[in-house]
Write a structure and sequence with these properties.
Structural class: alpha+beta
Radius of gyration: 26 Å
Strand content: 5-15%
Number of helices: 26
Oligomer: single chain
Number of strands: 8
Largest sheet: 4 strands, antiparallel
CATH class of the largest domain: Alpha Beta
CATH topology of the largest domain: Gyrase A, domain 2
CATH architecture of the largest domain: 2-Layer Sandwich
Distance between the termini: 63 Å
């Protein structure tokens, strides 16, 4: 039997660091207004010339029943599904005692923002393993399978690091059943969207998702948000869907249908949805590129005029935001999807992790005997790399490759045994994060020129994500005119200097400027920017 001390339970809790909006009426001699009271009077404000504060004081002075007035107003508005009310009230939450599932569950919604521990920078250890309640309540055999599989993956991760494999690549052999946590901003509208999504996928969403909802609901009355929350919850209108990987693998979906047609495709596929090409748009981009070339020809001009370049880009992206749309279908690791999903301006669809796992099992089980014997050949390795990430630093070493594949296979077999006894979401806790998911992304002009692509082409981006983004950039360029292609590049290209505060820079900026980029200039431009900030803070 597994030592019970080794089975560290998930002790998921939420600390609400702040919530709002609140309105201080102490100077007027009244108690502060709660978030739903503020929002109720703000809603009424749309019908009167007075502001919310004036109307609230008027009601308080008249000794009317404030609570009843708020209830009537919110049920009338939020109860009909007006999402503007439920997106106006929000919580700032700190997740503690949770697993890495929290990141996958809560950071993909549009109306939210989050800061999460980076698993590509923070190493894990045996003490990081968290055990779902269903495992703790199961038989000694199930406990052993879960713990030993998790422990073995982490020990191999630690060994890889000693062999010179970068932490961010080695981490893809570790699982999501480890210590997580994080900070997140969530409007009520998003929390309600989670509630509805979790109920829809109740057999596939990890327990932490439901724990979050119940813990929040238990505090809503005290926070002064309960009327607003329940009114919107029972409104006859849907909330905006968000990418969710914890879904029924047997349901038909756009991703599943597309994957059947393009199964296990290694390289991304691009579709130019539309391009409303006009002469004015062409001239705008030609002029922008010409100005970039002029300013980036001399370091003193970059130092003085980089804000002008940025503002001109923004102005063009605003006026021509919908001139172009590219759709890209690609396969990336679960670990890297964790970064991609946080680009809330980018329309996305993603494959169910359970559906992806079945495809991965099919490939690995077909090569099971050769993996066990250590006799896998290059052809089989390439076949397996279609469903599970194989970093080059692993592939170049035969022993590391065999060890990598064996740990994936062990985890898949453990998953199969575990899900016979415990919920499938708990069983998935042992699956390493290098498993590949199919993802669909739609790029508009902003995400091509300033948003997703420039950020993920940066030398500091996760290597796998940068490699995929480079392929996506090339595909977009293959289907775009030169005057647009000239402006597509890493984020440093748009201003003429490296944005990263590191002592060294990657050199990707050099082909895009007309002078030799030096460490002295890098320090100079960074210092000038910091001084601007400090000047404003005086």
């Amino acid at each position: 039997m597994v030592n019970q001390i080794a089975l560290k339970p998930i002790d998921f809790d939420i600390e609400i660091l702040g919530y709002g909006p609140n309105l201080d009426l102490s100077k007027e001699g009244y108690e502060d207004l709660t978030p739903q009271q503020v929002i109720a009077f703000s809603s009424m404000m749309t019908y009167k010339s007075k502001n919310a504060k004036e109307m609230a004081i008027e009601v308080l002075k008249s000794e009317q029943d404030l609570d009843q007035k708020v209830i009537n107003s919110i049920i009338n508005s939020a109860g009909r599904g007006h999402a503007s009310l439920s997106t106006s009230a929000a919580l700032w939450c700190l997740f503690t005692g949770s697993s890495k599932y929290v990141d996958s569950l809560f950071t993909g919604a549009i109306f939210s923002s989050s800061l999460m521990p980076s698993s590509r920078r923070i190493p894990v250890n045996i003490e990081s393993i968290l055990t779902p309640e269903s495992v703790i309540k199961s038989s000694p055999e199930i406990q052993k399978i879960y713990y030993e599989t998790s422990k073995s993956n982490i020990e191999f991760f630690e060994y890889l690091v000693t062999q010179g494999v970068k932490l961010e690549e080695a981490a893809k052999i570790t699982q999501y059943g480890i210590t997580g946590g994080g900070f997140i901003f969530l409007p009520l509208e998003t929390i309600i969207a989670y509630k509805k999504e979790f109920e829809l996928e109740k057999d596939f969403v990890p327990k932490e998702g439901f724990d979050f909802i119940s813990k929040i609901e238990a505090q809503l009355k005290e926070l002064g948000m309960d009327i607003l929350y329940w009114s919107r919850n029972f409104a006859p209108r849907n909330t905006l869907p968000y990418p969710n990987v914890f879904t029924d693998p047997k349901k038909n979906s756009f991703i599943n249908d597309f994957k059947k047609m393009n199964f296990f495709q290694e390289k991304p596929r691009v579709f130019r949805d539309y391009f409303y090409e006009t002469k004015n748009f062409e001239n705008e981009l030609i002029n922008l590129y010409s100005l970039e070339q002029e300013i980036k020809s001399k370091p003193e001009l970059v130092l003085e005029k980089w804000p002008d370049l940025l503002n001109l880009r923004r102005d063009i992206e605003k006026r021509y935001s919908n001139v172009i749309s590219f759709s890209l279908f690609s396969n990336i690791s679960f670990r890297v999807w964790g970064e991609a999903k946080r680009h809330r301006t980018l329309e996305q669809s993603v494959e169910s992790v359970y559906h992806a796992t079945e495809g991965t099992k099919e490939k690995f089980y077909a090569h099971k005997e050769l993996i066990r014997k250590g006799q896998i050949n290059n052809s089989a390795i390439e076949d397996l790399s279609k469903v599970y990430i194989m970093p080059e630093s692993i592939k170049k070493d035969r022993d590391l490759t065999i060890g990598w594949l064996r740990h994936v296979l062990d985890s898949l077999e453990a998953y199969d045994k575990l899900k016979e006894t415990i919920p499938i979401s708990d069983a998935f806790s042992v699956i390493p994060r290098g498993i590949k998911l199919s993802i669909f992304k739609r790029f508009d002009l902003y995400n091509i020129l300033d948003g997703y692509i420039p950020l993920r082409l940066c030398g500091t981006a996760e290597p796998e994500m940068r490699r995929i983004t480079e392929l996506e950039r090339d595909l977009i360029k293959d289907n775009s005119p030169g005057y647009l292609n000239n402006l597509i590049g890493p984020k440093c290209q748009s201003v003429g200097y490296c944005l990263e505060p590191y002592k060294s820079y990657c050199g990707r900026i050099n082909p895009n400027i007309g002078f030799q980029y030096t460490e002295d200039f890098h320090k100079l431009v960074q210092t000038a920017r910091v001084n601007l900030i400090k000047e404003k803070l005086k």
